[in-house]
Amino acid sequence: MKINSNMGKVEIRDQKQRYGDSHRGIFALERIEKGEKIWYCECGKKDACFTKDQLLNIIKKNPKLYNFIWSFSYMIDDDLFGLSYNYKDENTIDECVLFNHSCDPTCGFGENGCGDNVIAIRTIEPGEELTYHYGILETESCLIQGLICKCNSQNCVGKLTFDYYRDPVFVNKYFEYMSPYLKKKTLEMNHKWYSIKCYVKRYIPNDSSDDSSCDLEDWRKGLCSLKSISQDELVASFASEEHVQEHMHYLRHNSFDPNCYIIGKNVYACFDILPEVELTVDFGNDSNPQPSAPIRNSSSNDATN
Ligand SMILES: C[S@@+](CC[C@H](N)C(=O)[O-])C[C@H]1O[C@@H](n2cnc3c(N)ncnc32)[C@H](O)[C@@H]1O
């Protein structure tokens, strides 16, 4: 198998005993020093990109692609996933997609993020597996949310929740090794955050095809529930009321039957909301939307996740 490593210090080994049928992993053949560049990867530059809905539509039409898409798509932005152009043939561009996750990883992304290189974050001895923490690449709305980790490390968390970029201890340890997207998400936490119950979704225009890598940046973005949200539960919170103004364009105006309301810098649910429902607020005046603050009893709301 072709190795796109700069050193020939690594090889691909069978890992079906740990992860299941047809799983592989990347292993060190020689000692690799902390900070060494291990892998030059072209995926970020060459892969196609899709929204989650597009990926799910592709799988619906072609269920045999389920495992491939689940394993080899990765987040590059809000509701945007990179995937090999050759996905229909279940081929990847680069073997860098064979890095497995570990809760005690040996690698991270180098200077230019996952689109460029993977580096050693500590000394790696011959025979050790090369892994990175998937929390430096994925968020709560990734496809592999809830993956049961089999890394076997002492600090393995078991179920992977992918909200690690919200955790200051994790960020302190891994920020420099995160993908550009996760770095951006982490920095956004200083002025806004959406709770782990919702995510920024890209709404596909009705006339666009499922599997084209078209100009996704132009698609309308909206805040969407990821899980069930209970009445009066906190949905999103911002650093200040000023920041609500800055980011509220993600919340769609709905004067008839909004499912959320805003008090100060916080957004709450008007009633129980099911997963995959767009979150809306009555901003009052459409032409100059202002956060509305219907009188609600918010005493039971907690401004934490
Ligand atoms: C990017 S692939 C990694 C390469 C994969 N082992 C293979 O050979 O196809 C990601 C997939 O590998 C598996 N995987 C990687 N790390 C894992 C871990 N720590 N625990 C359980 N499964 C893992 C999961 O199935 C995951 O969706």
Topology:
Layout: E1 10-14, H1 16-19, E2 24-28, E3 37-40, H2 43-46, E4 48-50, H3 52-61, H4 66-72, E5 74-77, E6 80-83, E7 100-101, E8 107-109, E9 117-120, E10 129-132, H5 168-174, H6 180-188, E11 192-194, E12 198-203, E13 220-225, E14 234-238, H7 241-247, E15 252-253, E16 260-263, E17 266-269, E18 280-281
Parallel strand pairs: 7-10, 15-18
Antiparallel strand pairs: 1-2, 2-10, 3-9, 4-6, 5-6, 8-9, 11-14, 12-13, 14-17, 16-17
Bound molecules: S-adenosylmethionine (SAM).
S-adenosylmethionine binds at residues 15, 19, 23-25, 70-72, 97-98, 100-102, 144, 147, 149-151.
Organism: Brachionus calyciflorus
Domain SET: 8-135
Protein name: SET domain-containing protein
Question: How does this model look, in words?
Answer:
The chain is α+β, with helices and mostly antiparallel strands and 305 residues long. It folds into 2 domains: 10-190, SET domain (Beta-clip-like, Beta Complex), CATH 2.170.270; 193-281, SET domain (Beta-clip-like, Beta Complex). Helices cover 16% and strands 23% of the residues. The protein is built from 7 helices and 18 strands. It has helices at 16-19, 43-46, 52-61, 66-72, 168-174, 180-188, 241-247, and strands at 10-14, 24-28, 37-40, 48-50, 74-77, 80-83, 100-101, 107-109, 117-120, 129-132, 192-194, 198-203, 220-225, 234-238, 252-253, 260-263, 266-269, 280-281. The strands form 6 sheets. The chain has a 4-stranded mixed sheet. A 4-stranded antiparallel sheet has the order 11-14-17-16. Strands 3-9-8 form a 3-stranded antiparallel sheet, with no helix packed on it. Strand 16 and strand 17 (266-269) form a beta hairpin. The longest helix has 10 residues, at 52-61. The chain binds S-adenosylmethionine (SAM). S-adenosylmethionine binds at residues 15, 19, 23-25, 70-72, 97-98, 100-102, 144, 147, 149-151. InterPro entries: SET_dom, SET_dom_sf. Residues 285-305 are annotated as: Disordered. It comes from Brachionus calyciflorus.
